[in-house]
TrEMBL record:
GO terms for molecular function: methyltransferase activity. This is Methyltransferase. SUPFAM superfamilies: S-adenosyl-L-methionine-dependent methyltransferases. Keywords: Methyltransferase, Transferase. It comes from the Archaea. One of its GO terms (biological process) is methylation. The keyword ATP-binding does not apply. Gene3D superfamilies: Vaccinia Virus protein VP39 (3.40.50.150). Residues 34-154 form the Methyltransferase domain. Pfam families: Methyltransf_31 (PF13847). The keyword Protease does not apply. InterPro entries: Methyltranfer_dom, SAM-dependent_MTases_sf.
Amino acid sequence: MANEDVCSYKRAGFFDSKIRKLFQNPNKILSPYINKGMNVLDLGCGPGFFTLEMANLVGESGKVVAADLQEEMLIKVENKTKNNHLKEIIKLHKTQKDSIGLSEKFDFILIFYMLHEVPNKRKFLGELKNLLKNEGKILIIEPKGHVSKENFEKSVRLIKEKGFKTSKGPKVFYSYSIALEKITN
Ligand SMILES: C[S@@+](CC[C@H](N)C(=O)[O-])C[C@H]1O[C@@H](n2cnc3c(N)ncnc32)[C@H](O)[C@@H]1O
């Protein structure tokens, strides 16, 4: 698989396994960033490994937009929420390869193992900036091994060029991690 290829929905099981929870626990990773009532975006949500925990954290007064390029991934998220209260909190959104296609503003955006799949990162980061509230945060996590240190550092340079302030993200098993905020003055 080339670095920028989109991870097929046929591999969704790999990203949704019970074992993954042991070393990438969604609550541990996300609870410092998400509070009740927030409007949050899981961009490149895949089968929803993080989406459901995001919905638990924002609660009934909040909203989660689960966005993915692949309809099949969104159907997997929908199936998980069909028979419970989370379906009121989670809204599904299908993106285009070259456009996220959302206009609302978010308190928090998660981009987990997805940035390396975006061919035009410059355009993507510009669009992302418009989706973030001034006081909002973005968390980008990328897989070590699959993404080289050099390529991750290249993305970080681009992130800074696009006017984001960066800080250390949470520790995530075998991953690069960075938190982004807008520079507002
Ligand atoms: C490796 S999976 C990770 C899924 C999930 N974030 C996780 O960690 O379990 C990457 C996901 O990003 C999605 N994706 C890739 N490019 C995208 C884009 N431009 N817009 C939205 N989703 C995208 C893919 O369809 C895939 O579901």
